[in-house]
Amino acid sequence: MKRFLTTLIILLVVIVAGLTTLVMLVNPNDFRHYIVEQVEKKSGYQLEFNGDMRWHVWPTLSIITGPVSLTAPNAAKPILSADNMRLDVELWPLISHKLSVEQIVIDGAVIRKTPDSEIQTHRNAPVAPGGVPTSSPLPEKNSWLLDIEKINISNSLVIWQTSKDEFNLRNIDLSLKKSDKKQVAVKFSGNLNQNQQEFVFNLRADIDLSDVNQKISGQLTQFDYKLSGVDLPESGIEGQITSDFLYTKGKVESASLSHLVITANESALSGDASIQLADTPKVMVNLVAEKLDLDNLLGTMPSSTHIESEVNNNRVGVKPVISGANPQQYDLSGLQAFSANINLAINQLIYRGMMVSDVVFEAQNQTPRLTVSKLQGKAFGGAFSLPVTFNYSSTPAYVSARPDFKNIDLTPLLKAFNMPQKLSGVISLNSTLSGVGYDDHAVKNQWQGPVNFELRNAKLQGLNIPLLIQQSVSRVTNKINAPVNTGNVTEVDSFIVAGKLNKGNLNISSMNATSSLVNISGQGRINIPNETIDVNLGVNIANGWGGDSRLVQQLQAMTIPLRIYGSWNNLKYQLDVEKLLRNELRTQAKEALGNFLKKEENKGLNDLLNAL
């Protein structure tokens, strides 16, 4: 045992002595110029070391640098900067004064993707005949990464700046590890905070660089994410994404995602997507979903006044609502930057508590129009189609829609959009509408066009029109019995309306309701934003009268004028029964007197003829 311990101690002494001798004989600063030269030769980027390099022997043999930065050619700011960098090196190559880097470790780096950190063309660069400055071709940027076994960047910050916004990705951890077959394993995680919302992600991918000059392919094996914060569900949105990917070089570069699977809370989408990176990028998306629960993703549920507080609790705060009168709210000019074809098929869609099945969505974006050529599905016992066109050649965007509903139960539809459920039945609607904007405010206040619909088995809650008239008549004359039916609803077999929507006002040119009990016709106006109505009706009650048979026959043949007006939730009416009956009696008296005079006149004429 003593001999073993002695041998072990001697071995450790030799190793320590060897490392000490190596550290004394090899100056890591001798590699500074070599590293800088190799980086610039193979990438074109300028690597700068500030301060001395020093050895670090635990837990691995490493070179520790001072502040370091990496700058693109002629860029104003470095693309990467850090307080220090660690290079884990292999021991034996150092004996022959060769540097072999196993791993690069950077902690607390700042990575910039901004206009002033990108490659800039030198002002004095020669100008080609086409007028575009030329520069020396840069060496292949990808090859130098393959000369390093592994790169680790931790606790870092990424500053990503676009023409309109700046994004800061914090707590970035990035790991790149290559294999002998030019395969790179990537690990990338971090979080993004923007507009009081946080996006946390964790990515794993395998990249194939074996044909890097032609293409880059691989698999996104894991992408876990969570989005939380203001105007989102209380529990946030979280899920996973997996996909195969391919980036192809050439005259027109392209990128594609195949076998794409996206999960978000309780929803899942699958399919493929691609983009051609031409002057105007072209996007293609094809997705299918067994179930897409937008209520669970957006925190939207059908709301009403008595449950409004409960609904608001489903979301973590709400962003300030911009008035629909602000034209900048409907700015879709960003769609000019690309063209697109999007196809989406959903077996079951949940939105505002509505269960919609067999949803098909097809859209094409071609400047200056986004055309939803097909948006259709089945809901509430019927089917709907809603093709829409968005013209964004100017701001605000102008929208045209052609809603077509067939045999849809109206009650759950009104409930879903928080509208008074005074009217129920099975609706079939056809319309052509257009106007500025595309939200609820715009539809109610800006859109216009003809509206035609039919409501079968219609019921008007809160007002029984036949009962109202019969009660009024029975109070004026005792020849009519008080009605037995005391229900507070008007029921008809068919209710047909033709009108025109004009910026919030639905002007009804004709209205006809028919049943075995009553026939109603009329005209009027409905103010949708203020939820008020003012219609003039002509009511003919064919059945339900009781009392004097002669008067009943007269009332059955009579069209009774009735005005209904006021708030949807507090309807009022105007009905002058006494005047109606008085006018009717006056008309009957005139007719009776005329018949009598005519009879007497005929009798007198006959007597005169007989006398002659």
Topology (SSEs and partners):
Elements: H1 2-25, H2 32-43, E1 46-49, E2 54-56, E3 62-64, E4 68-71, E5 80-82, E6 85-89, H3 91-95, E7 101-107, E8 110-113, E9 150-161, E10 166-178, E11 183-194, E12 197-208, E13 215-229, E14 237-248, E15 253-264, E16 267-277, E17 282-293, H4 294-298, H5 308-312, E18 339-351, E19 354-366, E20 369-379, E21 382-385, E22 388-391, E23 398-401, E24 404-409, H6 410-416, E25 423-431, E26 433-436, H7 440-445, E27 448-461, H8 465-476, E28 489-502, E29 505-514, E30 518-527, E31 532-541, H9 549-556, E32 560-567, E33 570-574, H10 577-611
Parallel strand pairs: 7-9, 8-9, 17-18
Antiparallel strand pairs: 1-4, 2-3, 3-6, 4-5, 5-8, 6-7, 9-10, 10-11, 11-12, 12-13, 13-14, 14-15, 15-16, 16-17, 18-19, 19-20, 20-21, 20-22, 21-24, 22-23, 23-26, 24-25, 25-27, 27-28, 28-29, 29-30, 30-31, 31-32, 32-33
Structure report:
With about 600 residues, this protein is an alpha+beta fold. The radius of gyration is 40 Å and the shape is elongated. The model is unreliable at about 135-145 and about 305-315 (pLDDT under 50).
Descriptive key words:
612 residues; alpha+beta; 33-stranded mixed sheet; 10 helices; 46% strand
